[in-house]
């Protein structure tokens, strides 16, 4: 019987980004939700600490090394994050002298200027001069609705990738039993059939070690503005749920090519999270 006991990683990975885009992320304000509050984080050091803890737990000394800051500086920021309830600390079971830091909050988005003026693609609808979707075609209407939501959020300077990823995860948990097969090729064929029937695009298996998928006609991003980076957070959530169940362990999805990054398709790499974190 199919069962998926894992949780979304909360870490949305894009390899399809430019160096300039990555540098400009430093100006973003990141939003995190804990049990008791929602907080905006603009400190570069705090954002780096939270980024590291999204991938896995780290010791305090690992954080110091990876951040490249003085121990006293990291100590102040860690104290602030602990007090805010965004992270927690516990003693390393293998070394009582070490403290292990864990993320106890969820990223929910960013306030950013990076995509506010991205060039909008031409409307490819040829059905009607008045309607940007095919009348009577729910998939066409849904694609248009997604595009309007994403482009309006971008224009306002709001990035909601983490929320879309978690939404995709919940939907993926429902879809996973419908497409599951113990054979990878057959499972991807089932995924392709489901995607095609429901107007979500087409899915093909382009590699098995690591698993890689190519999506043509991606409903989530094909019509989005060209931003220079990937935009398939919802798809990543769906794929995370499906493949963590298939592999029976948490996975990490990396989008290496995307319509929004300027490609003519989307491509995803699926890896076992434990292997990535070694």
Automatic annotation (TrEMBL):
The record places domain 4-vinyl reductase 4VR at: 210-272
Q: Which GO terms describe its molecular function?
A: DNA-binding transcription factor activity
Checking Pfam families in the record gives: HTH_5 (PF01022), V4R (PF02830)
Source species, domain of life: Archaea
**Domain HTH arsR-type: start-end pairs:** 37-117
InterPro entries, per the entry: ArsR-like_HTH, HTH_ArsR_DNA-bd_dom, NO_sig/Golgi_transp_ligand-bd, V4R, WH-like_DNA-bd_sf, WH_DNA-bd_sf
Report the Gene3D superfamilies cross-referenced here.
Trafficking protein particle complex subunit 3, Winged helix-like DNA-binding domain superfamily/Winged helix DNA-binding domain
What's the protein called, per UniProt?
Transcriptional regulator, ArsR family
Organism, scientific name:
Methanospirillum hungatei JF-1 (strain ATCC 27890 / DSM 864 / NBRC 100397 / JF-1)
